[in-house]
Design brief:
The protein has a six-stranded antiparallel sheet, sandwiched between helices. A two-stranded antiparallel sheet has the order 1-2. It is of the alpha+beta class and about 150 residues long. It has one domain: Alpha-Beta Complex (Cathepsin B, Chain A).
């Protein structure tokens, strides 16, 4: 588990800026969720777009890759000290409710994430995969430029 990823409790519809701020802060970029939201929150979308999360990270001098992740990939990156932003769909049936969260660890039961108002929230593998699969396992890996 990566213990020192900053946590920002999410305000309404601000999971993208809260997640992004935590990962950027982890890498030493000083920015608040509010500053991020002013720049990339989309009122018409009722949230933050995936592409804008990546572009904002790059604007702040980071390398950002969005890709289709896997549990093995998450475990490898966590072991190497990289928190990963994932997009899950918490909606029911045909109702979509996308949500960004930061995976900071894992154990034999599932993942550990900073999600919404919960810091270090354990999520069972089965539940996580079910909601993550609905977004085609969308993941965002942010690292410093080297």
């Amino acid at each position: 588990m990566i213990e020192n990823v900053p946590f920002h409790p999410q305000e309404a519809f601000q999971c993208g800026p809260a997640s992004l701020a935590g990962v950027l802060n982890y890498w030493g970029v000083q920015v608040t969720p509010e500053e991020i939201a002013k720049d990339i929150y989309s009122p018409s979308a009722g949230g933050t777009l995936n592409l804008d999360m990546m572009l904002y990270s790059e604007k702040k001098g980071m390398k950002a890759n969005q890709y289709k992740g896997s549990m093995d990939d998450i475990k490898t990156k966590i072991d190497l000290g990289y928190p990963i932003i994932v997009l899950v769909d918490l909606g029911l049936l045909v109702y979509q409710q996308n949500h960004f969260m930061v995976v900071v660890g894992y154990d034999e039961n599932g993942i550990i994430a900073n999600s919404g108002k919960d810091r270090l929230k354990p999520i069972a593998t089965k539940n996580f995969i079910k909601t993550w699969e609905r977004t085609n396992f969308w993941s965002l890996w942010i690292t410093p430029q080297r």
